[in-house]
Design brief:
By secondary structure, this protein is an alpha+beta fold. Helices cover 22% and strands 23% of the residues. The protein has two domains: 17-220, tt1808, chain A (Alpha-Beta Complex), CATH 3.90.1570; 221-259, no CATH class. Residues 227-254 form a coiled coil.
Length: 259
């Protein structure tokens, strides 16, 4: 009589990391050690970028951007994060899983990493923002190391309000290379946009701002600018109609009797 082979229970396959690691509900942006925004410029400049980030070759429903939101990036260290001044993503819905406003951006829970990041230089952050500082091996990596080597973000922009200097880097061959301005702007054909400096008034504050343009160099309008343009065009249309009506009256035709 032959004995039956021993029963070996089959273990279930391991779950993928995005089902077992913390989600944005576990990793929000609230942090009592980082209260509030540092100054008005760090609020207004990202807001201008947010309002004009309208990639012309992407479905608006699949475009997302955020300012001062925790960006979690490391599967092995799920509590590590960076907090970009502003970042933009394409191929991602405005709501988390199409349902909820984001509390943070957790890369292992999202379909795409940021496509472009903007950091606004401060005297205390310049070394890290420009890759001149590397942290110890047992510490979280610098922003430059995260954006370049871990998330591999295609475009990294650094702007100083103190010197009005715009520095840009494009990921080429796995490393950031400096970008040259083209007609004063940084073209990003994958978005159908370019990024450049604009001397103008935003929220009634005239200064040099970082702002999105089309590839051809036309400003991406703010909602208030679109409304003003529509109002101006309507006024011009009324003026032309009144001029035409007056011309008809001079010719002996009553414009009110015309069909």
């Amino acid at each position: 009589m032959t004995s039956s082979p021993p029963f070996i229970p089959q273990s279930d396959p391991p779950l993928p990391p995005w089902e077992t690691l913390p989600t944005m509900y576990d990793l929000p942006s609230d942090n009592p050690e980082e209260p509030g925004l540092p100054d008005d410029f760090h609020f207004l400049q990202p807001l201008l970028l947010y309002l004009t980030f309208q990639p012309t070759i992407w479905n608006p429903e699949l475009v997302y951007s955020a300012a001062d939101l925790n960006l979690y990036y490391d599967l092995q260290h799920p509590l590590w994060y960076k907090r970009p001044d502003w970042f933009g993503v394409v191929g991602v819905s405005k709501l988390y899983k199409g349902e909820d406003l984001r509390l943070s951006y957790v890369t292992w829970q999202e379909p795409a990493n940021p496509f472009v990041v903007v950091e606004l230089l401060s005297p205390g952050t310049e070394a890290e923002d420009l890759g001149m500082k590397k942290n110890a091996a047992d510490k979280p990596p610098s922003k430059w190391e995260v954006y370049e080597g871990i998330l591999r973000i295609p475009y990294y922009i650094v702007f100083s309000r103190y010197t009005d200097e715009l520095q840009a880097f494009q990921l080429i061959g796995g490393h950031y290379e400096p970008m040259n301005l083209t007609e004063g702007r940084l073209p990003m054909p994958e978005l159908g946009l370019s990024l450049g400096l604009w001397q103008g008034s935003f929220q009634d504050i005239p200064k040099l701002w970082l702002r999105w343009f089309t590839l051809a160099g036309e400003l991406i309008p703010l909602p208030t600018e679109e409304a003003a343009t529509a109002k101006e065009e309507a006024a011009q249309a009324r003026q032309k109609a009144e001029q035409l009506a007056e011309r008809l009256r001079q010719l002996g035709v009553n414009p009110d009797e015309l069909d």
